[in-house]
Every structure is written in C-alpha cells, then in structure tokens.
C-alpha cells in the first residue's frame, strides 16, 4: 500500500492533529457532540502547519477542499444525512488529505467505521459499558457517534502516511 501523501507531510501534521482526533472521538462518544473548538483548532492547524508541510502551490488547492467539503456537508446536514458536527469536522479534515488519496481514504474509512461501530455496540451491550457509564452515546438508540470513526480515520490515514507515504 502506497499513499500519495508524502511521509514528511504526514509527519508534520500527525503530532498536531492526533490530539484533536482523540478529543473529537472522546467528546462524540461521551456527549454525542463534536465541539466547534475542535473543528476550529483542526482548521487552524492546517492553516499554520500546511504552510510549512506543503509546497506553496498546493496549499490554496487544499484550502479549497475545505470550502467544497463544508458546502457539501451543509447540504447533507440539511437533508438529515449527517450531523452538523460531522460535516464541519469533515470540512476541517479535508485539506489534510492528499488529492491522490481519496480512494485509499475511503477504504480506510470503511474498515475503520466497521471496527468503530462494532466496538461501540459490543461495549454498549456488555459490562465494558460500566467503564464509562454516563456516556451519552449509550442511550441514543440506533444513533452512532460518527466522530469516533471520523477522528480515528484521519489519525490512521496520517499514521499510515508516515509509514507508507511517498
């Protein structure tokens, strides 16, 4: 498996993005919310670190993906297909993805979504639930905290980029 993101790019982004991804997963599991502060922090990380990590001609195109992803997310949220926090997180995460990697990202996301959903449902219906008894995601019926899989997908992508990037 070879990703188009360079190892250097991924290495620049990962240490800054990883804590935000963990925060997003945690708050969505515990509160069923992705905080605006996390989304803004993620976007700010790209605005600053992207200037260092990316060749300058690529930087504005990556920023454009944030805008496009946000517009698509707004439409999908209005149609009831995703939560507003999910849409905003996807938009803030979009510029971290190399333009040549959407197929690999979708494969990573699909496998990770299945793993996160399975782990959440197993924990929800077993004694593991007692480790975090007050999490909102346990009592939301069929709803699933997508920030858990969205945050971990971005982290996994960047981690794999460090190892398998060009």
Automatic annotation (TrEMBL):
Protein name according to UniProt: Type IV leader peptidase family protein
Gene3D superfamilies, A to Z: 1.20.120.1220
InterPro entries assigned: Prepilin_IV_endopep_pep (IPR000045)
GO MF annotation terms: aspartic-type endopeptidase activity
GO cellular component, one term: membrane
Ranges for domain Prepilin type IV endopeptidase peptidase: 17-116
Species the sequence originates in: Roseovarius aestuarii
Pfam families: Peptidase_A24
TM stretches of this protein: 7-26, 38-56, 63-82, 102-123, 144-164
Entry keywords, A to Z: Membrane, Transmembrane, Transmembrane helix
Record has Transmembrane as a keyword: yes
């Amino acid at each position: 498996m070879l990703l188009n993101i360079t190892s250097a790019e991924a290495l620049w982004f990962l240490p800054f993005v990883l804590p935000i991804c963990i925060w997003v997963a945690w708050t969505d599991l515990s509160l069923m919310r992705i905080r605006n502060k996390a989304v803004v922090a993620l976007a700010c990380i790209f605005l600053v670190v992207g200037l260092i990590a990316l060749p300058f001609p690529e930087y504005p195109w990556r920023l454009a993906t944030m805008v496009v992803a946000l517009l698509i997310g707004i439409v999908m949220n209005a149609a009831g297909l995703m939560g507003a926090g999910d849409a905003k997180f996807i938009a803030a995460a979009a510029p971290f993805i190399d333009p040549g990697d959407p197929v690999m990202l979708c494969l990573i996301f699909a496998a990770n979504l299945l793993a996160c959903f399975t782990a959440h449902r197993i924990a929800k219906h077993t004694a593991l639930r007692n480790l975090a008894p007050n999490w909102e995601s346990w009592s939301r019926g069929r709803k699933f905290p997508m920030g858990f899989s969205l945050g971990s997908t971005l982290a996994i992508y960047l981690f794999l980029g460090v190892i398998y990037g060009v």
